[in-house]
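Q: Could you write out the predicted structure for this multi-component system? I'm mainly interested in how the pieces pack against one another.
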Amino acid sequence: MDTIINGRDLALKIKEDVSNSVRSLRGSGIIPRLSLIIIGKDESSLRYVELKVKEAEKVGIFALVHSFHGDITLSEVCDLINELNQDKKTDGILVQLPIPSHLDELMVVSAISPAKDVDGLSPTSLGRITMGEELYTPAAAGAVIEILNHSNITIHGKKILIGGGSRILGLPLANMLINRGGIVTVAPSANDSFVNYSKVSDIVIVDFGIPKLVKGRMVARDSVIIDSGNNYVNGKVVGDVDIDDVIQKVSMVTPVPGGLGPMLIAVLLKSVVKAAKMRSLEHS
Amino acid sequence: MDTIINGRDLALKIKEDVSNSVRSLRGSGIIPRLSLIIIGKDESSLRYVELKVKEAEKVGIFALVHSFHGDITLSEVCDLINELNQDKKTDGILVQLPIPSHLDELMVVSAISPAKDVDGLSPTSLGRITMGEELYTPAAAGAVIEILNHSNITIHGKKILIGGGSRILGLPLANMLINRGGIVTVAPSANDSFVNYSKVSDIVIVDFGIPKLVKGRMVARDSVIIDSGNNYVNGKVVGDVDIDDVIQKVSMVTPVPGGLGPMLIAVLLKSVVKAAKMRSLEHS
Protein backbone atom coordinates (compact mmCIF):
# COMPACT_ATOMS: atom_id res chain seq x y z
CA MET A 1 0.00 0.00 0.00
CA ASP A 2 1.14 3.52 -0.70
CA THR A 3 1.25 5.98 2.16
CA ILE A 4 -0.84 8.46 0.21
CA ILE A 5 -4.35 7.14 -0.41
CA ASN A 6 -5.46 7.98 -3.93
CA GLY A 7 -9.09 9.08 -3.61
CA ARG A 8 -9.40 9.66 -7.36
CA ASP A 9 -8.54 6.04 -8.19
CA LEU A 10 -10.86 4.69 -5.52
CA ALA A 11 -13.66 6.97 -6.74
CA LEU A 12 -13.12 5.70 -10.29
CA LYS A 13 -13.36 2.13 -9.05
CA ILE A 14 -16.62 2.84 -7.23
CA LYS A 15 -18.05 4.64 -10.25
CA GLU A 16 -17.11 1.68 -12.45
CA ASP A 17 -19.09 -0.63 -10.13
CA VAL A 18 -21.97 1.84 -10.16
CA SER A 19 -21.83 2.00 -13.95
CA ASN A 20 -22.08 -1.80 -14.18
CA SER A 21 -25.04 -1.85 -11.80
CA VAL A 22 -26.77 0.86 -13.82
CA ARG A 23 -26.27 -1.15 -17.00
CA SER A 24 -27.94 -4.18 -15.48
CA LEU A 25 -30.79 -2.07 -14.01
CA ARG A 26 -31.38 -0.48 -17.41
CA GLY A 27 -31.42 -3.99 -18.89
CA SER A 28 -34.40 -4.75 -16.66
CA GLY A 29 -36.16 -1.53 -17.58
CA ILE A 30 -35.12 0.62 -14.63
CA ILE A 31 -33.38 3.92 -15.38
CA PRO A 32 -31.95 5.20 -12.08
CA ARG A 33 -33.03 8.77 -11.59
CA LEU A 34 -31.66 11.46 -9.27
CA SER A 35 -33.54 14.72 -8.71
CA LEU A 36 -31.41 17.61 -7.51
CA ILE A 37 -33.11 20.63 -5.97
CA ILE A 38 -31.20 23.89 -5.88
CA ILE A 39 -32.54 27.08 -4.38
CA GLY A 40 -30.97 30.46 -5.08
CA LYS A 41 -27.89 31.48 -7.01
CA ASP A 42 -24.95 30.52 -4.81
CA GLU A 43 -22.08 30.18 -7.32
CA SER A 44 -20.28 27.27 -5.70
CA SER A 45 -23.52 25.35 -5.08
CA LEU A 46 -24.46 25.77 -8.75
CA ARG A 47 -21.06 24.51 -9.86
CA TYR A 48 -21.25 21.57 -7.49
CA VAL A 49 -24.72 20.58 -8.73
CA GLU A 50 -23.47 20.77 -12.32
CA LEU A 51 -20.59 18.47 -11.41
CA LYS A 52 -22.97 15.98 -9.77
CA VAL A 53 -25.14 15.96 -12.91
CA LYS A 54 -22.11 15.43 -15.15
CA GLU A 55 -20.82 12.53 -13.04
CA ALA A 56 -24.29 10.98 -12.75
CA GLU A 57 -24.71 11.02 -16.51
CA LYS A 58 -21.28 9.45 -17.01
CA VAL A 59 -22.42 6.34 -15.13
CA GLY A 60 -25.83 6.26 -16.82
CA ILE A 61 -27.91 7.82 -14.03
CA PHE A 62 -30.57 10.25 -15.28
CA ALA A 63 -30.09 13.48 -13.33
CA LEU A 64 -32.77 16.16 -13.24
CA VAL A 65 -32.16 19.62 -11.79
CA HIS A 66 -35.01 21.57 -10.20
CA SER A 67 -33.77 25.11 -9.90
CA PHE A 68 -35.65 27.68 -7.83
CA HIS A 69 -35.58 31.37 -7.04
CA GLY A 70 -34.17 32.21 -3.62
CA ASP A 71 -37.54 33.57 -2.48
CA ILE A 72 -39.45 30.29 -2.86
CA THR A 73 -41.63 29.44 0.18
CA LEU A 74 -41.25 26.43 2.45
CA SER A 75 -44.58 25.00 1.35
CA GLU A 76 -43.61 25.29 -2.33
CA VAL A 77 -40.35 23.38 -1.69
CA CYS A 78 -42.20 20.73 0.34
CA ASP A 79 -44.86 20.39 -2.38
CA LEU A 80 -42.18 19.63 -4.96
CA ILE A 81 -40.48 17.16 -2.63
CA ASN A 82 -43.82 15.43 -2.01
CA GLU A 83 -44.39 15.14 -5.75
CA LEU A 84 -40.96 13.56 -6.17
CA ASN A 85 -41.62 11.27 -3.16
CA GLN A 86 -44.73 9.99 -4.98
CA ASP A 87 -43.09 9.83 -8.41
CA LYS A 88 -42.39 6.19 -9.26
CA LYS A 89 -39.54 7.09 -11.64
CA THR A 90 -37.54 9.11 -9.11
CA ASP A 91 -35.09 7.07 -7.05
CA GLY A 92 -33.12 9.72 -5.22
CA ILE A 93 -33.88 13.26 -4.07
CA LEU A 94 -31.15 15.66 -3.03
CA VAL A 95 -31.52 19.22 -1.77
CA GLN A 96 -28.27 21.10 -2.30
CA LEU A 97 -27.30 22.76 0.98
CA PRO A 98 -27.05 25.44 2.21
CA ILE A 99 -30.52 26.76 1.43
CA PRO A 100 -31.65 30.37 2.01
CA SER A 101 -32.06 31.12 5.72
CA HIS A 102 -35.79 31.90 5.52
CA LEU A 103 -36.35 28.19 4.79
CA ASP A 104 -36.25 25.79 7.76
CA GLU A 105 -33.56 23.27 6.77
CA LEU A 106 -34.88 20.66 9.21
CA MET A 107 -38.36 20.87 7.68
CA VAL A 108 -36.97 20.65 4.14
CA VAL A 109 -34.77 17.60 4.66
CA SER A 110 -37.49 15.97 6.80
CA ALA A 111 -39.86 16.20 3.83
CA ILE A 112 -37.71 13.82 1.76
CA SER A 113 -39.01 10.25 1.87
CA PRO A 114 -36.54 8.08 3.83
CA ALA A 115 -36.47 5.64 0.88
CA LYS A 116 -35.21 8.39 -1.47
CA ASP A 117 -32.91 10.35 0.87
CA VAL A 118 -29.71 9.42 -0.98
CA ASP A 119 -27.83 12.33 0.59
CA GLY A 120 -28.49 10.83 4.04
CA LEU A 121 -29.14 14.16 5.73
CA SER A 122 -32.74 13.70 6.92
CA PRO A 123 -33.40 12.95 10.59
CA THR A 124 -34.63 9.47 9.70
CA SER A 125 -31.43 8.60 7.82
CA LEU A 126 -29.28 9.97 10.64
CA GLY A 127 -31.35 8.13 13.26
CA ARG A 128 -31.03 4.86 11.38
CA ILE A 129 -27.25 5.40 11.49
CA THR A 130 -27.39 5.77 15.28
CA MET A 131 -29.42 2.55 15.44
CA GLY A 132 -26.89 0.64 13.34
CA GLU A 133 -29.58 0.30 10.65
CA GLU A 134 -27.85 2.37 7.97
CA LEU A 135 -29.79 2.93 4.78
CA TYR A 136 -28.21 6.09 3.36
CA THR A 137 -25.31 7.98 4.90
CA PRO A 138 -24.07 11.52 4.35
CA ALA A 139 -21.55 11.27 1.49
CA ALA A 140 -18.54 12.42 3.53
CA ALA A 141 -19.19 9.90 6.33
CA GLY A 142 -19.76 7.12 3.80
CA ALA A 143 -16.58 8.11 1.95
CA VAL A 144 -14.46 7.75 5.10
CA ILE A 145 -15.84 4.24 5.69
CA GLU A 146 -15.17 3.36 2.00
CA ILE A 147 -11.57 4.54 2.31
CA LEU A 148 -10.95 2.59 5.52
CA ASN A 149 -12.55 -0.56 4.09
CA HIS A 150 -10.74 -0.28 0.78
CA SER A 151 -7.42 0.17 2.57
CA ASN A 152 -8.15 -2.88 4.78
CA ILE A 153 -7.92 -0.83 7.93
CA THR A 154 -9.59 -2.52 10.89
CA ILE A 155 -12.06 -0.35 12.79
CA HIS A 156 -12.93 -2.76 15.61
CA GLY A 157 -10.94 -2.00 18.76
CA LYS A 158 -9.08 0.93 17.21
CA LYS A 159 -8.72 4.31 18.90
CA ILE A 160 -10.25 6.77 16.49
CA LEU A 161 -10.39 10.56 16.78
CA ILE A 162 -12.71 12.79 14.81
CA GLY A 163 -11.84 16.48 14.83
CA GLY A 164 -15.06 18.41 14.23
CA GLY A 165 -18.60 17.47 15.22
CA SER A 166 -20.73 18.40 12.20
CA ARG A 167 -24.02 16.74 11.37
CA ILE A 168 -22.80 15.89 7.88
CA LEU A 169 -19.51 14.25 8.88
CA GLY A 170 -18.35 14.08 12.49
CA LEU A 171 -21.48 12.93 14.28
CA PRO A 172 -22.85 10.35 11.82
CA LEU A 173 -19.33 9.03 11.22
CA ALA A 174 -18.78 8.65 14.97
CA ASN A 175 -21.97 6.60 15.27
CA MET A 176 -20.97 4.44 12.28
CA LEU A 177 -17.50 3.77 13.69
CA ILE A 178 -18.78 2.99 17.22
CA ASN A 179 -21.31 0.56 15.75
CA ARG A 180 -18.34 -1.12 14.02
CA GLY A 181 -16.54 -1.53 17.35
CA GLY A 182 -14.25 1.49 17.25
CA ILE A 183 -13.33 3.46 20.38
CA VAL A 184 -14.27 6.84 19.05
CA THR A 185 -13.63 10.34 20.35
CA VAL A 186 -15.16 13.45 18.84
CA ALA A 187 -13.33 16.68 19.60
CA PRO A 188 -15.53 19.55 18.43
CA SER A 189 -12.77 22.18 18.63
CA ALA A 190 -9.17 22.36 17.38
CA ASN A 191 -7.54 22.89 20.77
CA ASP A 192 -4.97 21.21 23.03
CA SER A 193 -7.44 18.47 23.92
CA PHE A 194 -7.70 17.53 20.25
CA VAL A 195 -3.90 17.31 20.04
CA ASN A 196 -3.66 15.20 23.21
CA TYR A 197 -6.10 12.65 21.81
CA SER A 198 -4.55 12.84 18.35
CA LYS A 199 -1.12 11.85 19.67
CA VAL A 200 -2.47 8.49 20.87
CA SER A 201 -5.04 7.68 18.18
CA ASP A 202 -4.74 4.94 15.55
CA ILE A 203 -6.98 6.77 13.10
CA VAL A 204 -7.62 10.53 12.94
CA ILE A 205 -10.26 12.18 10.76
CA VAL A 206 -9.84 15.96 10.58
CA ASP A 207 -12.71 18.25 9.64
CA PHE A 208 -12.03 21.67 11.14
CA GLY A 209 -11.51 23.84 8.07
CA ILE A 210 -8.16 25.12 9.30
CA PRO A 211 -5.38 24.98 6.66
CA LYS A 212 -2.45 22.67 7.52
CA LEU A 213 -3.42 22.50 11.19
CA VAL A 214 -2.23 18.94 11.79
CA LYS A 215 1.57 18.52 11.99
CA GLY A 216 3.71 15.42 12.39
CA ARG A 217 4.29 16.06 16.09
CA MET A 218 0.53 15.89 16.73
CA VAL A 219 -0.01 12.37 15.40
CA ALA A 220 1.01 8.86 16.45
CA ARG A 221 3.59 6.88 14.50
CA ASP A 222 1.96 4.60 11.91
CA SER A 223 -1.45 6.18 12.38
CA VAL A 224 -3.96 6.68 9.56
CA ILE A 225 -4.95 10.28 8.81
CA ILE A 226 -8.01 11.26 6.80
CA ASP A 227 -8.24 14.90 5.80
CA SER A 228 -11.66 16.40 5.17
CA GLY A 229 -10.33 19.94 4.92
CA ASN A 230 -11.14 21.95 1.82
CA ASN A 231 -9.61 25.38 2.36
CA TYR A 232 -8.76 27.98 -0.26
CA VAL A 233 -5.37 29.58 0.37
CA ASN A 234 -3.94 31.92 -2.27
CA GLY A 235 -6.22 30.38 -4.88
CA LYS A 236 -5.16 26.83 -4.06
CA VAL A 237 -7.11 24.09 -2.30
CA VAL A 238 -5.38 23.08 0.92
CA GLY A 239 -6.37 20.45 3.52
CA ASP A 240 -6.44 20.55 7.32
CA VAL A 241 -3.34 18.33 7.41
CA ASP A 242 0.21 19.46 6.66
CA ILE A 243 0.87 16.38 4.54
CA ASP A 244 4.58 17.12 3.99
CA ASP A 245 5.04 17.27 7.73
CA VAL A 246 3.13 14.08 8.62
CA ILE A 247 4.09 11.86 5.68
CA GLN A 248 7.22 10.34 7.25
CA LYS A 249 5.44 9.46 10.45
CA VAL A 250 2.07 8.01 9.45
CA SER A 251 1.16 4.78 7.69
CA MET A 252 -1.51 6.37 5.51
CA VAL A 253 -2.87 9.81 4.76
CA THR A 254 -5.40 11.20 2.30
CA PRO A 255 -4.19 14.18 0.26
CA VAL A 256 -6.09 17.38 -0.52
CA PRO A 257 -6.97 17.66 -3.34
CA GLY A 258 -7.41 14.08 -4.55
CA GLY A 259 -8.40 12.37 -1.31
CA LEU A 260 -11.85 12.52 0.25
CA GLY A 261 -13.15 15.11 -2.24
CA PRO A 262 -13.44 12.92 -5.35
CA MET A 263 -15.06 10.19 -3.22
CA LEU A 264 -18.09 12.29 -2.28
CA ILE A 265 -19.91 12.14 -5.61
CA ALA A 266 -18.96 8.47 -6.07
CA VAL A 267 -20.62 7.63 -2.75
CA LEU A 268 -23.72 9.65 -3.70
CA LEU A 269 -24.04 7.79 -7.01
CA LYS A 270 -23.66 4.48 -5.20
CA SER A 271 -26.60 5.50 -2.99
CA VAL A 272 -28.73 6.35 -6.04
CA VAL A 273 -28.08 2.87 -7.43
CA LYS A 274 -29.02 1.37 -4.06
CA ALA A 275 -32.33 3.26 -4.21
CA ALA A 276 -32.93 2.12 -7.80
CA LYS A 277 -32.24 -1.48 -6.82
CA MET A 278 -34.86 -1.22 -4.08
CA ARG A 279 -37.30 0.09 -6.71
CA SER A 280 -36.47 -2.83 -8.99
CA LEU A 281 -37.18 -5.25 -6.12
CA GLU A 282 -40.58 -3.66 -5.54
CA HIS A 283 -41.42 -4.17 -9.21
CA SER A 284 -40.28 -7.76 -9.44
CA MET B 1 -23.02 19.53 46.99
CA ASP B 2 -22.92 16.00 48.29
CA THR B 3 -20.63 13.52 46.63
CA ILE B 4 -23.49 11.08 46.13
CA ILE B 5 -26.08 12.46 43.74
CA ASN B 6 -29.56 11.66 44.99
CA GLY B 7 -31.54 10.61 41.92
CA ARG B 8 -34.70 10.05 43.93
CA ASP B 9 -34.79 13.66 45.16
CA LEU B 10 -34.08 15.02 41.70
CA ALA B 11 -36.78 12.78 40.19
CA LEU B 12 -39.25 14.06 42.79
CA LYS B 13 -38.37 17.63 41.87
CA ILE B 14 -38.91 16.95 38.16
CA LYS B 15 -42.21 15.19 38.85
CA GLU B 16 -43.32 18.15 40.97
CA ASP B 17 -42.65 20.47 38.00
CA VAL B 18 -44.46 18.02 35.72
CA SER B 19 -47.40 17.89 38.13
CA ASN B 20 -47.66 21.69 38.11
CA SER B 21 -47.59 21.77 34.31
CA VAL B 22 -50.29 19.09 34.14
CA ARG B 23 -52.48 21.12 36.50
CA SER B 24 -52.23 24.17 34.27
CA LEU B 25 -52.84 22.07 31.10
CA ARG B 26 -55.92 20.51 32.68
CA GLY B 27 -57.05 24.02 33.58
CA SER B 28 -57.10 24.84 29.88
CA GLY B 29 -58.94 21.64 29.01
CA ILE B 30 -55.99 19.46 28.01
CA ILE B 31 -55.58 16.14 29.81
CA PRO B 32 -52.10 14.81 28.97
CA ARG B 33 -52.43 11.25 27.77
CA LEU B 34 -49.79 8.54 27.40
CA SER B 35 -50.52 5.30 25.55
CA LEU B 36 -48.30 2.38 26.48
CA ILE B 37 -48.15 -0.63 24.19
CA ILE B 38 -46.96 -3.91 25.64
CA ILE B 39 -46.63 -7.10 23.63
CA GLY B 40 -46.27 -10.50 25.25
CA LYS B 41 -45.94 -11.54 28.87
CA ASP B 42 -42.38 -10.63 29.88
CA GLU B 43 -42.64 -10.31 33.67
CA SER B 44 -40.20 -7.44 34.15
CA SER B 45 -41.68 -5.49 31.22
CA LEU B 46 -45.16 -5.88 32.70
CA ARG B 47 -43.95 -4.66 36.08
CA TYR B 48 -42.16 -1.71 34.50
CA VAL B 49 -45.24 -0.68 32.53
CA GLU B 50 -47.34 -0.87 35.71
CA LEU B 51 -44.84 1.38 37.46
CA LYS B 52 -44.96 3.90 34.59
CA VAL B 53 -48.76 3.96 34.77
CA LYS B 54 -48.70 4.49 38.53
CA GLU B 55 -46.19 7.32 38.31
CA ALA B 56 -48.05 8.94 35.40
CA GLU B 57 -51.31 8.92 37.36
CA LYS B 58 -49.59 10.44 40.38
CA VAL B 59 -48.75 13.56 38.36
CA GLY B 60 -52.17 13.69 36.69
CA ILE B 61 -51.23 12.16 33.32
CA PHE B 62 -53.86 9.77 31.95
CA ALA B 63 -52.07 6.50 31.11
CA LEU B 64 -53.68 3.87 28.90
CA VAL B 65 -52.20 0.39 28.49
CA HIS B 66 -52.69 -1.52 25.24
CA SER B 67 -51.73 -5.08 26.02
CA PHE B 68 -51.26 -7.64 23.24
CA HIS B 69 -50.63 -11.32 22.80
CA GLY B 70 -47.08 -12.20 21.82
CA ASP B 71 -48.24 -13.51 18.44
CA ILE B 72 -49.69 -10.21 17.19
CA THR B 73 -48.58 -9.35 13.62
CA LEU B 74 -46.50 -6.36 12.58
CA SER B 75 -49.39 -4.87 10.60
CA GLU B 76 -51.72 -5.16 13.61
CA VAL B 77 -49.21 -3.31 15.80
CA CYS B 78 -48.69 -0.64 13.14
CA ASP B 79 -52.46 -0.24 12.68
CA LEU B 80 -52.89 0.49 16.37
CA ILE B 81 -49.95 2.92 16.34
CA ASN B 82 -51.46 4.70 13.33
CA GLU B 83 -54.79 5.02 15.13
CA LEU B 84 -53.01 6.54 18.13
CA ASN B 85 -50.99 8.82 15.81
CA GLN B 86 -54.29 10.18 14.45
CA ASP B 87 -56.03 10.34 17.83
CA LYS B 88 -56.22 13.97 18.93
CA LYS B 89 -56.40 13.04 22.63
CA THR B 90 -53.20 10.97 22.67
CA ASP B 91 -50.04 12.97 23.38
CA GLY B 92 -47.43 10.27 23.80
CA ILE B 93 -47.02 6.73 22.47
CA LEU B 94 -44.56 4.30 23.99
CA VAL B 95 -43.84 0.73 22.91
CA GLN B 96 -42.31 -1.19 25.80
CA LEU B 97 -39.13 -2.88 24.56
CA PRO B 98 -38.05 -5.57 23.96
CA ILE B 99 -40.81 -6.84 21.70
CA PRO B 100 -41.06 -10.45 20.42
CA SER B 101 -38.39 -11.20 17.83
CA HIS B 102 -40.84 -11.91 14.99
CA LEU B 103 -41.70 -8.20 15.00
CA ASP B 104 -39.25 -5.83 13.31
CA GLU B 105 -38.37 -3.35 16.07
CA LEU B 106 -37.19 -0.73 13.55
CA MET B 107 -40.54 -0.88 11.72
CA VAL B 108 -42.49 -0.67 14.98
CA VAL B 109 -40.69 2.36 16.43
CA SER B 110 -40.63 4.02 12.99
CA ALA B 111 -44.44 3.84 12.91
CA ILE B 112 -44.75 6.19 15.89
CA SER B 113 -45.39 9.78 14.81
CA PRO B 114 -42.31 11.91 15.62
CA ALA B 115 -44.57 14.37 17.47
CA LYS B 116 -45.71 11.61 19.87
CA ASP B 117 -42.49 9.61 20.27
CA VAL B 118 -42.01 10.51 23.93
CA ASP B 119 -39.65 7.56 24.45
CA GLY B 120 -37.27 9.05 21.83
CA LEU B 121 -36.39 5.70 20.26
CA SER B 122 -37.63 6.21 16.69
CA PRO B 123 -35.08 6.96 13.94
CA THR B 124 -36.52 10.46 13.53
CA SER B 125 -36.05 11.30 17.21
CA LEU B 126 -32.52 9.88 17.20
CA GLY B 127 -31.66 11.73 13.98
CA ARG B 128 -32.92 15.00 15.41
CA ILE B 129 -30.56 14.42 18.33
CA THR B 130 -27.63 14.02 15.91
CA MET B 131 -28.69 17.26 14.21
CA GLY B 132 -28.80 19.16 17.52
CA GLU B 133 -32.56 19.55 17.02
CA GLU B 134 -33.68 17.47 20.01
CA LEU B 135 -37.39 16.97 20.40
CA TYR B 136 -37.60 13.79 22.51
CA THR B 137 -34.64 11.85 23.85
CA PRO B 138 -34.37 8.30 25.17
CA ALA B 139 -35.11 8.53 28.90
CA ALA B 140 -31.67 7.34 30.04
CA ALA B 141 -29.81 9.85 27.83
CA GLY B 142 -32.14 12.64 28.94
CA ALA B 143 -31.67 11.63 32.57
CA VAL B 144 -27.87 11.95 32.35
CA ILE B 145 -28.20 15.47 30.93
CA GLU B 146 -30.71 16.37 33.69
CA ILE B 147 -28.31 15.14 36.37
CA LEU B 148 -25.35 17.07 34.92
CA ASN B 149 -27.42 20.25 34.54
CA HIS B 150 -28.96 19.97 37.99
CA SER B 151 -25.52 19.45 39.54
CA ASN B 152 -24.17 22.50 37.65
CA ILE B 153 -21.55 20.43 35.87
CA THR B 154 -20.20 22.13 32.76
CA ILE B 155 -20.21 19.97 29.64
CA HIS B 156 -18.48 22.37 27.24
CA GLY B 157 -14.78 21.58 26.90
CA LYS B 158 -14.92 18.64 29.30
CA LYS B 159 -13.39 15.24 28.53
CA ILE B 160 -16.28 12.81 28.77
CA LEU B 161 -16.15 9.02 28.46
CA ILE B 162 -19.16 6.83 27.80
CA GLY B 163 -18.67 3.13 28.46
CA GLY B 164 -21.14 1.25 26.25
CA GLY B 165 -22.49 2.23 22.85
CA SER B 166 -26.18 1.34 22.99
CA ARG B 167 -28.83 3.04 20.90
CA ILE B 168 -30.85 3.92 24.00
CA LEU B 169 -28.03 5.50 25.99
CA GLY B 170 -24.45 5.62 24.73
CA LEU B 171 -24.93 6.80 21.17
CA PRO B 172 -27.68 9.41 21.59
CA LEU B 173 -26.00 10.70 24.76
CA ALA B 174 -22.68 11.04 22.91
CA ASN B 175 -24.36 13.14 20.23
CA MET B 176 -26.10 15.29 22.83
CA LEU B 177 -22.86 15.91 24.74
CA ILE B 178 -20.84 16.69 21.59
CA ASN B 179 -23.51 19.16 20.48
CA ARG B 180 -23.05 20.83 23.91
CA GLY B 181 -19.31 21.20 23.31
CA GLY B 182 -18.03 18.14 25.17
CA ILE B 183 -15.00 16.15 23.99
CA VAL B 184 -16.67 12.77 24.02
CA THR B 185 -15.29 9.26 23.72
CA VAL B 186 -17.46 6.17 23.40
CA ALA B 187 -15.78 2.91 24.37
CA PRO B 188 -18.09 0.07 23.32
CA SER B 189 -16.28 -2.59 25.39
CA ALA B 190 -15.10 -2.81 28.99
CA ASN B 191 -11.40 -3.36 28.24
CA ASP B 192 -8.03 -1.72 28.89
CA SER B 193 -8.81 1.06 26.43
CA PHE B 194 -11.86 2.00 28.44
CA VAL B 195 -9.71 2.18 31.58
CA ASN B 196 -7.04 4.27 29.86
CA TYR B 197 -9.60 6.85 28.80
CA SER B 198 -11.41 6.66 32.13
CA LYS B 199 -8.25 7.61 34.04
CA VAL B 200 -8.08 10.98 32.27
CA SER B 201 -11.77 11.84 31.87
CA ASP B 202 -13.64 14.59 33.70
CA ILE B 203 -16.96 12.79 33.43
CA VAL B 204 -17.52 9.04 32.99
CA ILE B 205 -20.88 7.43 32.22
CA VAL B 206 -20.81 3.65 32.66
CA ASP B 207 -23.34 1.40 30.93
CA PHE B 208 -21.75 -2.03 30.52
CA GLY B 209 -23.91 -4.18 32.77
CA ILE B 210 -20.90 -5.52 34.71
CA PRO B 211 -21.31 -5.40 38.51
CA LYS B 212 -18.83 -3.14 40.33
CA LEU B 213 -16.49 -2.97 37.33
CA VAL B 214 -15.25 0.58 37.93
CA LYS B 215 -12.79 0.96 40.80
CA GLY B 216 -11.14 4.03 42.28
CA ARG B 217 -7.84 3.38 40.49
CA MET B 218 -9.63 3.56 37.12
CA VAL B 219 -10.96 7.10 37.52
CA ALA B 220 -9.45 10.58 37.70
CA ARG B 221 -9.40 12.52 40.95
CA ASP B 222 -12.44 14.84 41.26
CA SER B 223 -14.16 13.33 38.26
CA VAL B 224 -17.93 12.86 37.97
CA ILE B 225 -19.18 9.28 37.63
CA ILE B 226 -22.64 8.35 36.43
CA ASP B 227 -23.62 4.71 36.82
CA SER B 228 -26.23 3.27 34.48
CA GLY B 229 -25.66 -0.31 35.64
CA ASN B 230 -28.63 -2.28 36.90
CA ASN B 231 -27.32 -5.74 37.75
CA TYR B 232 -28.90 -8.33 40.01
CA VAL B 233 -26.35 -9.96 42.31
CA ASN B 234 -27.62 -12.31 45.04
CA GLY B 235 -31.05 -10.74 44.81
CA LYS B 236 -29.72 -7.21 45.20
CA VAL B 237 -29.46 -4.44 42.59
CA VAL B 238 -25.82 -3.46 42.00
CA GLY B 239 -24.35 -0.84 39.66
CA ASP B 240 -21.37 -0.96 37.28
CA VAL B 241 -19.40 1.23 39.71
CA ASP B 242 -17.88 0.05 42.99
CA ILE B 243 -19.11 3.12 44.82
CA ASP B 244 -17.29 2.34 48.10
CA ASP B 245 -14.03 2.18 46.18
CA VAL B 246 -14.45 5.39 44.14
CA ILE B 247 -16.18 7.60 46.71
CA GLN B 248 -13.02 9.08 48.25
CA LYS B 249 -11.55 9.97 44.88
CA VAL B 250 -14.37 11.48 42.83
CA SER B 251 -16.29 14.72 43.18
CA MET B 252 -19.65 13.17 42.38
CA VAL B 253 -21.12 9.75 41.73
CA THR B 254 -24.63 8.41 41.24
CA PRO B 255 -25.55 5.43 43.42
CA VAL B 256 -27.34 2.23 42.37
CA PRO B 257 -30.13 2.00 43.37
CA GLY B 258 -31.33 5.58 43.76
CA GLY B 259 -29.31 7.29 41.03
CA LEU B 260 -30.20 7.18 37.34
CA GLY B 261 -33.02 4.61 37.79
CA PRO B 262 -35.62 6.81 39.48
CA MET B 263 -34.88 9.55 36.92
CA LEU B 264 -36.01 7.48 33.93
CA ILE B 265 -39.76 7.68 34.52
CA ALA B 266 -39.50 11.33 35.58
CA VAL B 267 -37.84 12.18 32.23
CA LEU B 268 -40.52 10.20 30.35
CA LEU B 269 -43.32 12.08 32.13
CA LYS B 270 -41.59 15.39 31.34
CA SER B 271 -41.65 14.38 27.66
CA VAL B 272 -45.38 13.59 27.81
CA VAL B 273 -46.02 17.06 29.20
CA LYS B 274 -43.90 18.55 26.42
CA ALA B 275 -46.07 16.72 23.86
CA ALA B 276 -49.27 17.87 25.59
CA LYS B 277 -48.01 21.47 25.57
CA MET B 278 -47.45 21.23 21.80
CA ARG B 279 -51.03 19.99 21.47
CA SER B 280 -52.30 22.90 23.55
CA LEU B 281 -50.41 25.32 21.27
CA GLU B 282 -52.05 23.77 18.20
CA HIS B 283 -55.46 24.33 19.79
CA SER B 284 -54.92 27.92 20.82
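A: Regarding packing and overall arrangement: The beta strands of chain A are 33-39, 62-68, 92-95, 159-163, 183-187, 203-206, 224-227, 231-233, 236-238, 252-253.
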